[in-house]
Amino acid sequence: MNNYGAFDPGYGGGKLAVIQDGKLKTGVVPSLVGKGHTDLGELSMLGIGRQRRRDLPDTVKVNGTTYLVGDGVERYAEPMYDLDFLRLRGGPELRALFYDVVYRVLGPGIHDLSLIIGLPVEVMLDKQQAEATLQGLKKWMVGEHSFSVSNDNVHLIVRQVKAGAQPLGALFAWGMDNQGKWRRDTEDLHAQVGMVDIGFNTLDLFAIAGAEISMRYTGGDTLGMRRAAEHLVREMQEVYDMDLSLHKADAMIRNRPPMFLVPPPANDPDAPVQKIDPRPLIDEALGRAATGILSFVRQGDKWGNGRQFHHQLITGGGAEALRSQLSEAFPRAYIMPRPVLANAIGLARLAQQAFN
User: Fold this and answer.
1) pLDDT, tens only, 194-250
2) Which end of the chain has a smaller Cβ tally under 10 Å, C or N?
3) CB atoms < 10 A from the CB of 236, how many?
């Protein structure tokens, strides 16, 4: 059976949504990929300290190469960091991430998919770049794939691939059911609807009016939650002389730990490590990110105050982290349920029509 789905190759996480037998299945894998293994041989702490082993990253094996994917990669290998748009065309990092999220959603065995790939608005607006990206994706995606994840074998057949703007998924997650049918009033499809998609490395604006794209209010930039992570990295370096990776900083921003360990002062090497409350620094980082994001959205030739829209949909991982700032700036805005997955869910629902 040919199933329909959507893959959102985000810089913070790879998201997959699949409609299988009328039911929605979803998964998210952090965009952490490295080459290596988790076998420690006979290394141990000899009974001292923590006895329970922490969760391991997934082990993806394809064409004789082993990749580690997901949370915990940094404990075993150097992650591959690639934040430019060329990453979206394919490469070891993206392929391993895709295979892992397919396994997490569908499990081992033989699977058949037709997929819409969610791409940033900035990529889709550039005709040459969009075509090159789609052709790059089709070149490696369409066809048969054999791989294993954590020693489970998967054989995947990808029959068709199309590209769609990531925030378009929010529209159909909001208005379409799992059978690919519009479930809201027809007037909502023909109303003015604006979507803001706040990802890790991208900020997308997308708008429709009369069921057509409203170019005036559509655009994109490489603003996003990465700016908050970068600010937190700088502050941790300056205040505590501690290096954090972008993904570690992003995880702190999303999870807001009440305590965090930092090195002792440099002039007192015998002092124990310090316990700090990182939340004031996290709040500052979120404030900086919100300022940049809202400044872009509110530009006179962009959204302004957003009151021209009948509906305002907010999606992406930043929607949850910046919920209070966004709600204050746009009182009529609707923050999507499961905002991290909303784009993939909507594009998967749309795929049932797009491929038929």
Assistant:
1) 999 999 988 999 999 988 999 989 998 888 899 999 999 999 999 998 999 888 899
2) N
3) 22
Return the CATH number of 1-37+55-165, one of 3.40.50.300, 3.40.50.10380, 3.30.420.40, 3.60.150.10. Answer: 3.30.420.40
The full set of domain ranges for the chain reads 1-37+55-165, 184-337
Model confidence over 76-133: pLDDT tens digits?
A: 888 877 666 777 887 888 999 999 999 999 999 999 999 999 999 999 999 999 999 9
The packing angle between helices 226-240 and 246-255, to 10°, is: 100
pTM to 2 decimals? 0.92
pLDDT band at 51, cuts 50/70/90? Answer: very low
When the candidates are 3.30.420.40, 3.90.1640.10, 1.20.120.450, 3.40.50.1970, the CATH number that belongs to 184-337 is 3.30.420.40
Report which DSSP code applies to 142: S
| Residues paired with residue 61 on neighbouring β-strands, in sequence order | 66, 148
**Token duo for residue 343:** 């784009």
Question: Measured between alpha carbons, how far is residue 19 from residues 3, 334, 349, 353 in Å?
Answer: 6, 24, 7, 12
The 3-state secondary structure of 201-240, one letter per residue: CCEEEEEEECCEECHHHCEEECCCCHHHHHHHHHHHHHHH
pLDDT in tens, 144-196: 999 999 999 999 999 999 999 999 999 999 999 999 899 999 898 889 999 99
Q: How many helices and strands, by DSSP H and E, does the chain display?
A: 11, 17
